[in-house]
């Protein structure tokens, strides 16, 4: 009976699958443009194609009719409402209590090319031999003792293997210099790094066979600027002769987990531009021995910068072992979305534990350590294996050479070529002249012996990294950067890194989140300053006012670029440096933030003047003041108070996004009678609310005035603020305090209303025109969400949890996350104070707990800002011991252990929850977003700072907000994390519905209902059994190694990470000259294009801008499978086409030259009217001359 029941259920399920598949096939044929185009394969092909073309034409005509009707209705509405300004109608309450806010009524459209939707489907994606998600699924991660190579296995070889073709050995001396870790950048330079360079000049010249590599341009530039021309020329000769190779050539060796691709690329450009100007050399090979895990984004950027090869080191030891066993340590690293293998990058993975000498010559560190001649007896460093090195002499050279060759041969067995790479160095090595002699002289004796004995079948020499790669390419008969025959192709990333046992380096994804957030703020300011500065300089040049504009601001830009670059270092943004070093980083970041605000304000001053002839720049008399200030490098920002009176105070608002933007602008004003006008004098509605000095007390320091604005793309809008008795459009927020029995002093600020509920436990809600949110009456936390167009609400519960650390042996520290088990619910000592604020433009709920303040806000606006939840959690755990605070989102989404996280804000990487791995191995970096999804919904957590994230149960997202740890985790730092700051973590939560969900949900429910009735009638099976059984067939399959956000999600992330800047115009004795809105773009950019930067290029002879700027564009891949929503701006795609001619209003594009990504290689110049075309996900650089 049981078997019969199972067979019937399976048979019914197969029938349902077949029917549903047929339904989908018919639907796809009917609606998919690609099927229409291929309809000619069927009989009567000509008629079929013609019929499909007519259907497409009808569809386009219908769409155009709708757009025209929409425009017509909007024009009539604008006419009736007196011009369509935001202030034409008052907000009003609906019968259900929600606010209705008629905004400007401006018609917008969404027009996505069907061809642009095909890319995300992945149908043309190139297959790879190894996908890292599959590798993780396959491996046991069992950590079996491998003998002398503890994390590997015994390596055997036949001594005659190299008789026909000798082994080539390249020993590559190097010194890894951290721009800050135990010491500050400047202290490292003065104590050690400058001595490395000075000795390098002398020691490399002594023997032309000596080679060396260097990567960190930040140190190299500092040394260069301190020496005379003679030493500069000597160093230049070493580089141009090939004795010294610059590898990667970035400002630093960046972290690859927490960094955003904007900064990742910017520090690479800064290093490469410095090299081009001062040395005239172009790096060929990438070198990344110390980042704690590796991202394919770096491979992509290096490939686009015209590097041909790269090397990585810190990869999980089980993966290294697997790759070693399959001889896959060298591979072509391909991007997951690649359709034509154009992103393939040749990559070498170092096989052993570390990049130090004991772990680079071969599998036995006890032997390799004997060939680190800095450890000769009598020195400060020795070998932990108790067998010291011996200086090479005639009497021992034969024995020593054969011992070393054995290691070289064993290492070579892990690779597919008879060429072996042997790095020779460690942190801050070669800082003393003695070590140069110890290493070079002893190794040269070994090489001379090996090379003079043909029976050893080896050719050993010093080499650079590119020397090694060139030999591999030559031996395999391929060009540089090409795929050698039979070498594997890989896609995916190398997170999470573990160096031994269950020591997963997932703690640093969150460590010191205050500075992770400050870095993102600084990056946004840098990009905004670059764009406005480039436009202002071009406009001043066109107006013949170049001498009057402060081009000296370029030095502030350069300093900021370099400080942002320094902070991308893999011990800076990671939060893994000593406390004194972190303070030094903080001072650098704050100094540059202040400088960038000056650059932005100076550019804005020039650009908004109606009459440029009135422009005067006085360093001591600024025209604008910043929107907010920070008292110290460890302070949260505070708004600048705008003093109001009856004369207008002008406000300039900068939108750093390349699309028009509808948003709320909030400023701190001195008067409750605030009136806000547009540039042309139209009054705008204002929601007035309080600043709060505590959970129950309104601050006397001013009022928060929030008003809606439609801001031009990359532009500057001008508003007027008054203290006016005629402020009928200024509406007060309604504030309610839910005290839960706490006896707290309250303070109200007249005229703002304040209500008190002492012990209300009822659940409650806030709502906007798009969303309704329900909250717990006891905790004040979000419980559920309902989109206004949906019939049902979705569970969306926010909870807070605490992780501890292990009580014995190894504990969590700056790098490692070693929890003492699953997280425990956060247990407050007292119930929270909950503040509910409602108004026409926004509503919010703020919960005050002992260790955090949690705010959820919704905006009553059309478009991007009105479709997501704005979440800010301000954390302060300075009184905790060995605790980590986490925020968890709990939903009904059936994600089934699949999580999607971004890599560097650039691409999305699917993840799976692996039960075979410890909890800490299932946390991943989240630089900007993470999402879960099922057949109906996708829930995305957007983040304004890099943090660690996991999905440990279906339907859940968990993010670590801060970590306070009292001990070191034995990775060299020597400190815990005890310098926590009061930190504000900013998020957006976006709930999207699948476009196919509505379409197929009814059909699927009918099939399920019929099948359920059949089974229930025959066997009495429960409804839940049927639904669970069927959903295993109909669920969304997330096994693809590729996924993309929607366009709405892309824009939500952009709005979160690039906030508007509201800059008050300072009062002037002579009055403020006439101002006007600045709209730099002459048209609308395709909404899948991101203007990553418009970066002024430096003159070669001085620290001033040249006539050219670098335009860096990124075309984003996006998922069309989610419901299209009104973004409140005209959004269209163009299959990657963009015309640069006339792109900028009021500026001519004189020259356009395609460049490599870091501007070191020039392509064929284009006509200034040329149309460029980018593939999805492509980033490209162009050198422009504007004027």
From TrEMBL:
<dbReference type="InterPro" id="IPR050843">
    <property type="entry name" value="Glycosyl_Hydrlase_38"/>
</dbReference>
<dbReference type="InterPro" id="IPR011013">
    <property type="entry name" value="Gal_mutarotase_sf_dom"/>
</dbReference>
<dbReference type="InterPro" id="IPR037094">
    <property type="entry name" value="Glyco_hydro_38_cen_sf"/>
</dbReference>
<feature type="transmembrane region" description="Helical">
    <location>
        <begin position="7"/>
        <end position="26"/>
    </location>
</feature>
<keyword id="KW-0333">Golgi apparatus</keyword>
<keyword id="KW-0325">Glycoprotein</keyword>
<dbReference type="GO" id="GO:0000139">
    <property type="term" value="C:Golgi membrane"/>
</dbReference>
<protein>
    <recommendedName>
        <fullName>Alpha-mannosidase</fullName>
        <ecNumber>3.2.1.-</ecNumber>
    </recommendedName>
</protein>
<keyword id="KW-0735">Signal-anchor</keyword>
<dbReference type="Pfam" id="PF01074">
    <property type="entry name" value="Glyco_hydro_38N"/>
</dbReference>
<keyword id="KW-1133">Transmembrane helix</keyword>
<dbReference type="InterPro" id="IPR015341">
    <property type="entry name" value="Glyco_hydro_38_cen"/>
</dbReference>
<keyword id="KW-1015">Disulfide bond</keyword>
<dbReference type="InterPro" id="IPR011682">
    <property type="entry name" value="Glyco_hydro_38_C"/>
</dbReference>
<keyword id="KW-0472">Membrane</keyword>
<dbReference type="InterPro" id="IPR013780">
    <property type="entry name" value="Glyco_hydro_b"/>
</dbReference>
<keyword id="KW-0326">Glycosidase</keyword>
<dbReference type="GO" id="GO:0030246">
    <property type="term" value="F:carbohydrate binding"/>
</dbReference>
<comment type="function">
    <text>Catalyzes the first committed step in the biosynthesis of complex N-glycans. It controls conversion of high mannose to complex N-glycans; the final hydrolytic step in the N-glycan maturation pathway.</text>
</comment>
<keyword id="KW-0862">Zinc</keyword>
<dbReference type="InterPro" id="IPR028995">
    <property type="entry name" value="Glyco_hydro_57/38_cen_sf"/>
</dbReference>
<comment type="similarity">
    <text>Belongs to the glycosyl hydrolase 38 family.</text>
</comment>
<dbReference type="GO" id="GO:0004572">
    <property type="term" value="F:mannosyl-oligosaccharide 1,3-1,6-alpha-mannosidase activity"/>
</dbReference>
<dbReference type="GO" id="GO:0006491">
    <property type="term" value="P:N-glycan processing"/>
</dbReference>
<dbReference type="Pfam" id="PF07748">
    <property type="entry name" value="Glyco_hydro_38C"/>
</dbReference>
<dbReference type="InterPro" id="IPR011330">
    <property type="entry name" value="Glyco_hydro/deAcase_b/a-brl"/>
</dbReference>
<feature type="domain" description="Glycoside hydrolase family 38 central">
    <location>
        <begin position="503"/>
        <end position="589"/>
    </location>
</feature>
<dbReference type="GO" id="GO:0006013">
    <property type="term" value="P:mannose metabolic process"/>
</dbReference>
<dbReference type="Pfam" id="PF09261">
    <property type="entry name" value="Alpha-mann_mid"/>
</dbReference>
<keyword id="KW-0378">Hydrolase</keyword>
<keyword id="KW-0479">Metal-binding</keyword>
<dbReference type="GO" id="GO:0046872">
    <property type="term" value="F:metal ion binding"/>
</dbReference>
<dbReference type="InterPro" id="IPR027291">
    <property type="entry name" value="Glyco_hydro_38_N_sf"/>
</dbReference>
<dbReference type="InterPro" id="IPR000602">
    <property type="entry name" value="Glyco_hydro_38_N"/>
</dbReference>
<keyword id="KW-0812">Transmembrane</keyword>
<comment type="pathway">
    <text>Protein modification; protein glycosylation.</text>
</comment>
